[in-house]
Specification:
The protein contains 3 helices and 5 strands, in the order αββααβββ. It has about 130 residues and is of the alpha+beta class.
Amino acid sequence: MSKPDDLLVAIAAAVESQQTNQMSLTVLVHGAVITGRLAPESAWRRRVAEVLADSDRLGTFASLFMDAEDGDPARSAPPPPSYLHFHVARILQGTVGIPETGGMYRIAIKDVSAWTMGDFSYSEPG
C-alpha cells in the first residue's frame, strides 16, 4: 500500500494503548500470508530479547531490542504505529504454517496489501 490503511493503523494503535495480545489478524505482505496475534511493541521486544538472551551465539543482540523502549511517558499522544508486531504467527504455505510453533514478526503497515480479522488455521498434511 502506498498509504497505510487508516483502519489497520487504528487497530494497531488500540493494541498498543490497551496493551493486549488477543487481537488475531491475517495479512498479505508481498504475496505472503501471515496469520497470528498482534502484540504491543514493548511486549514483542521483551519476548524477542528473552529468546536472544537464551542463545549462546545471539545473546549479545538482546540489548538491541530493549534499548528502544517506550519514549517519554509525559508525552501526551504517541505517534500512530507504523509496524504490526505479531507473536505466535505463521507464514502460510499451502496447508502448512511456518514455523509450526509460531514466530515473532514485525511487519511495516505500509507493506500490507490486504488483511482480515482472525487467525487462519491450517492443517498438517495427512
